[in-house]
Each structure stands twice: as structure tokens, then as C-alpha cells.
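Structure first, sequence second, as always.
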């Protein structure tokens, strides 16, 4: 077909499409869009879509074969809550210990945001799927150096949200979110001293209201060390040593009694 003939055919197609659109015109126009949350509850389990289940079945079988193997055990249910919780303490400890292994030196503190911990760790069997539910994001280890005065700023930001996961430091905060006191390893923080901090890359960029991280003197990213993998490794190590995963509250972040 010649170029002129192709142009003519294309023109006819466009004209025909225009006529169809005009004939479908209803006279209505969009004036607004409204959205709302749809709770995903057991009602969908009670009345499943059989056709959807048939489509998902082969994929579910493969995922289950990967996620269901048991890799360890928990002695109790570990939860997430402010100002301090068993699971946030555990994850912060794992970050700090992992960073120490990488650097071959002591890491002063570790910080993990509560919002990045997406599920509790149930008592009993721990599977791959359990860990993926707790840490579904591709967050990786980051090690920073920060001056003492910047750490105080960071701890003030943690106080403002009434607590985050913390290892190696102790904070006293007020009920209205002010920092009263902060120590590292039981010692007062020296403004001129440089401290090492382990966290995840997401927080290292100053996200989740922890903007003090942007003032770090140095940052080292370890993209190959995902938080999820560090948790998996820790659980497997506990299992190899025939011990259950344990963690608790230790008074790392305390609320000051205003009546005192």
C-alpha cells in the first residue's frame, strides 16, 4: 500500500472512531472522585472467589513451599509499641550486632523505626514467612558516624514521636514528647565526641521524622545486607544453638512521671 493510501485509511479509521465516541456520549461529566478504605476481613475467606482461587493456586503452592519451612522458635509473642517494646528492642540489637560484625568494632547505638516493623513475632514456630511479614521492605544496613550534639537532636526527635527501637542508649522523655535525659552505655553524651550508629538506609536519609540523620559525618551503606536477611540469620543462629528467640522491655526509653 502506498503512503497516500495508508494516510487515507488512517483518516477513515479516525473519523469512524470519532463517530463512535460521539454516539456514546451520555451528556454526563466527572465532577469528583471519592475514595475510602476497604477493610480486608475474614468475610473474604468465608465467601472466596472460586475463579480467582483457581488462578492463584499454582502460585500459592510455590510461595507456601518457600515461606512455610520452620527456621526457629520464639519463647513468647514479641510485639511493637511505644515508647519501648520487645520486638523493637530485638531488631535494634540485631542491627547493632550485625554492624559490629561488619566493622569489626563496637557500635555505640542502633535505631529502628517502629513503623518499619510491620507485624508481631508470634510465640512458637518461626518461618520464613514470619520474618517477611515483619520486614517486608528492601531496607538494608547503614552505619553512620555522628557528633554528640547531633545525637541529642536525634534523640529529641525520637522523644517527639514517643519512642523508637533503640539499642545501646537510654532515654528519659516526657508524656508530651520532650527529651529529659539521654545516655549511651550508661554515660553522658559528649557533644564533641563522634559516635557510631547502626540503622537502615531509609532512616539514614532522614526519613520518618529523623532528620538529624542528614547531619551525619559519614555514612556507609551495605545494600547486600537486608534487614530481613539479618533477622533470618539471627533466628537460624538461635535455632542452631538450640535456644529460642527471646527479648523484653529493659527500660531503654522511660516516661518521666510528671507528678515527681
Amino acid at each position: 500500500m502506498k503512503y497516500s493510501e495508508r494516510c487515507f485509511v488512517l483518516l477513515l479509521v479516525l473519523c469512524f472512531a470519532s463517530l463512535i465516541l460521539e454516539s456514546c456520549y451520555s451528556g454526563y461529566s466527572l465532577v469528583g472522585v471519592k475514595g475510602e478504605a476497604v477493610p480486608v476481613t475474614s468475610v473474604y475467606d468465608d465467601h472466596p472467589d472460586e475463579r480467582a482461587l483457581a488462578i492463584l493456586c499454582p502460585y500459592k503452592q510455590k510461595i507456601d513451599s518457600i515461606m512455610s519451612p520452620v527456621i526457629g522458635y520464639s519463647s513468647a509473642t514479641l510485639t511493637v509499641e511505644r515508647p519501648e517494646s520487645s520486638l523493637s528492642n530485638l531488631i535494634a540489637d540485631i542491627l547493632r550486632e550485625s554492624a559490629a560484625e561488619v566493622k569489626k568494632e563496637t557500635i555505640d547505638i542502633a535505631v529502628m523505626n517502629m513503623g518499619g516493623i510491620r507485624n508481631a513475632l508470634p510465640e512458637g514456630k518461626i518461618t520464613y514467612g514470619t520474618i517477611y511479614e515483619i520486614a517486608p521492605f528492601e531496607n538494608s544496613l547503614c552505619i553512620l558516624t555522628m557528633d554528640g550534639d547531633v545525637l541529642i537532636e536525634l534523640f529529641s526527635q525520637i522523644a517527639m514521636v514517643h519512642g523508637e527501637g533503640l539499642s545501646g542508649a537510654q532515654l528519659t522523655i516526657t508524656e508530651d514528647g520532650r527529651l529529659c535525659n539521654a545516655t549511651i552505655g550508661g554515660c553522658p553524651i559528649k557533644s564533641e565526641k563522634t559516635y557510631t550508629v547502626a540503622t537502615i538506609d531509609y532512616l539514614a536519609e532522614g526519613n520518618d521524622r529523623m532528620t538529624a540523620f542528614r547531619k551525619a559525618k559519614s555514612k556507609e551503606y551495605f545494600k547486600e545486607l537486608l534487614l530481613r536477611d539479618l533477622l533470618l540469620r539471627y533466628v537460624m543462629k538461635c535455632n542452631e544453638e538450640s535456644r529460642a528467640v527471646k527479648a523484653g522491655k529493659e527500660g531503654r526509653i522511660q516516661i518521666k512521671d510528671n507528678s515527681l
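Margin note: The mean pLDDT is 91.
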